[in-house]
Structures are given as structure tokens and as C-alpha cells.
Amino acid sequence: MRELDQKQTIDLLNSIFECELAGVVRYTHYSLMVTGSYRIPMVDFFKEQASESLLHAQKVGEILTGLEGRPSRKVSSVEDTDKYSVKDFLAQSLAHEAKALGLYKKLFETVSNANSFLEDFARHMINEEETHNLELKQMLCDLNE
């Protein structure tokens, strides 16, 4: 086992925390803005995603305080592209989930062989984010035809 780089780990966790909070904002906004024939199932989908992002942020925040860090009060940027179709929302969601996946992968690299709890946490979150990426790609399939 190597020594955990506490500062780098806390910095990465704060980046993840900010990204997950941006997911709460993003998905809540989408749930309110979605229109058309997909509205009813997509509203529930986006609300679910917002709740999951909040849960992820809370988990990360608990780990941060456990490492004697302070959770950030910032939220990652949520750009407004002026594109409001279901396809646009799903494509933007895919980009957001890919960013989160990259952050969790960086966390995994940082904590590997240094802290087994954080390594397991990062691995679990990578699996969740990869699942989200696959789901979003599947949802986009029929919209790209």
C-alpha cells in the first residue's frame, strides 16, 4: 500500500461534488423544460436522475468530511445551449455523465493501492456512471434515426 495523497483526493472529491450538484440543477431543469410526446416518461426520468445526483453528492460530501475536508459550496457550470428537445437534453446528459465518469476514474487512479474504502467507492461509482452512459446512448438511438 502506498500513502494516500490527501490533498489531491480532497480536491478530486470536491470536483465530483460540484459536478454531482450540477447534475441536480441540470436534471431538475430538464424535467421542467421537456415537451412533446416523450414528456411524461422523461419528466420522471429526469427527476430520478436529479435525485440520484443529489444522493451521489451527499455520499461524496460525507467522505470529504470524513477526510477532514470541506465540501465545496460551488456548483459546476451548467451551460444553456438554447436547445430544448428531448434529444438535446439526452445528448447534454450524456456529456455530463461522461464528465462525471472521468472524474471518478481520476479518483480511482488517485486512491488505488492507498485506501481500499475509497478504491471500492470509486469503482462502484464508475460502474454506476458507465451504466448511465450506456442507458443514455440506448435512449438516444431511436432519436438519432
Estimate nothing, just give the exact number of structural domains: 1
- Which structural class do the helices and strands define? mainly alpha
CATH class: Mainly Alpha
Helical segment tally? Answer: 4
Q: Could you name the ranges where pLDDT drops below 50 across 5 or more consecutive residues?
A: none
Distance between the termini: 50 Å
Helix fraction by DSSP (H/I, runs of at least 4)? over 70%
The CATH topology is what? Ferritin
Strand content: under 5%
**Total DSSP E strands:** 0
Explain how this protein is built.
There is one protein chain. This protein has 145 residues and is mostly helical. The model has no long low-confidence stretch (mean pLDDT 95). The N and C termini lie far apart (50 Å). Helix content is 74%, strand content 0%. The protein has helices at 6-33, 39-66, 86-111, 116-141. The chain has a single domain (6-73, 81-141), classed as Ferritin, core subunit, four-helix bundle (Ferritin).
What topology does this entry show?
Blueprint: H1 6-33, H2 39-66, H3 86-111, H4 116-141
Describe this structure in a few short sentences:
This protein has a single domain, classed as Up-down Bundle (Ferritin). It is elongated. About 75% of the residues lie in helices and about 0% in strands.
Features:
145 residues; single chain; 4 helices; Ferritin; mainly alpha
